[in-house]
């Protein structure tokens, strides 16, 4: 029963996402859904610029834009290892940036991240969830990998929309 509910929710989510034509409208929709399904407190979607070696949030719940070098923090570590990272004790992870919590006043307990790959398998960003009441588990990691594909597809679809509008 639970599986059917998640599948139904995913189908509804995907249908609604097709109506979104900008990062500003689509990314909050994505964040709301992924937080609800995984039962996390916050979601951030980081965009990666390989040329600038920088990460910045297009969406970060509860805080202003976060920008940082791409080799810092758990998000930067996700780019380096090119796979999901999960830690259920953020402050014990050697890559965790306590400075972000200090700047925002938010206390991070646990984190799960997943790299966002484009269709050429280049990393274009990182999807991050914070503070699940229970620990993040393997099912959450699998869902993050799956969901990162939605983020990637949405970003690439927006680029296609923009390219088509430029020719009109």
List keywords for this structure.
168 residues; Beta-Lactamase; alpha+beta; single chain; 5 helices; six-stranded antiparallel sheet
Structural summary, described in words:
The chain is an alpha+beta fold and 168 residues long. It has a single domain (2-167), classed as GAF domain (Beta-Lactamase). It has 5 helices and 6 strands; from the N terminus they run ααβββαβαββα. The chain has helices at 2-17, 23-38, 73-81, 98-104, 138-167, and strands at residues 40-49, 54-60, 67-69, 85-87, 111-117, 123-132. A 6-stranded antiparallel beta sheet has the order 3-2-1-6-5-4, with helices on both faces. α1 (2-17) packs antiparallel against α2 (23-38) and α2 runs antiparallel to α5. The radius of gyration is 16 Å and the shape is globular. The model has no long low-confidence stretch (mean pLDDT 85).
